[in-house]
Amino acid sequence: MKPMQVNFLTSIIGSVVGFGIVYLITGQIQWGIIVGLLIGVGSAKWFRVKKQEASDEIEYDERVNNNIKNASLQTFSILNLMLFVYLLFSEQILNEHSIKTGHLLIYLAITFILSYYIVPLIVRRK
């Protein structure tokens, strides 16, 4: 029997099914979104690794790889520091949290996507 070929459509279906199952089990949409994003981001990373293995892409030297790591870490650190400062400010000075959990999850997902996918693409092209 031929193994199933994994493609973009399969990962989208997996994300939607994962979202649906977790949402039905927990009854909370944010947990379904987290599972759907995890499956989607994991699939995208896997596709990118497979595409790099298949193509004869130029190998980058150690300086470029170090620049990519540093830029990703700096972006991730700055965005999380901004979140930390906001949460500390809202807790200690305002004594209330005005951000919803869903918005916080979206912010964290954007932080991961920026730090690990978009910033490395920009740094690699420089």
Descriptive notes:
- There is one protein chain.
- 6% of the residues are buried.
- The chain starts with 7 loop residues before the first helix and ends with a helix.
- With 126 residues, it is mainly α.
- The chain is flat, with a radius of gyration of 19 Å.
- It is built from four helices and no strands.
- Helices cover 80% and strands 0% of the residues.
Describe the SSE topology.
Elements lengths: L7 H19 L2 H26 L7 H31 L8 H25 L1
Helix pairs in contact: 1-2, 2-4, 3-4
Largest sheet: none
Beta-strand fraction estimate: under 5%
Work out the number of β strands.
Answer: 0
User: How many individual helices?
Assistant: 4
**Unreliable runs:** none
Radius of gyration: 19 Å
Q: Helix coverage percent of residues?
A: over 70%
Class inferred from helices and paired strands = mainly alpha
Based on Cα principal axes, name the global outline.
Answer: flat
Order of helices and strands: HHHH
Q: How far is the N terminus from the C terminus? A: 46 Å
Mean pLDDT equals: 79
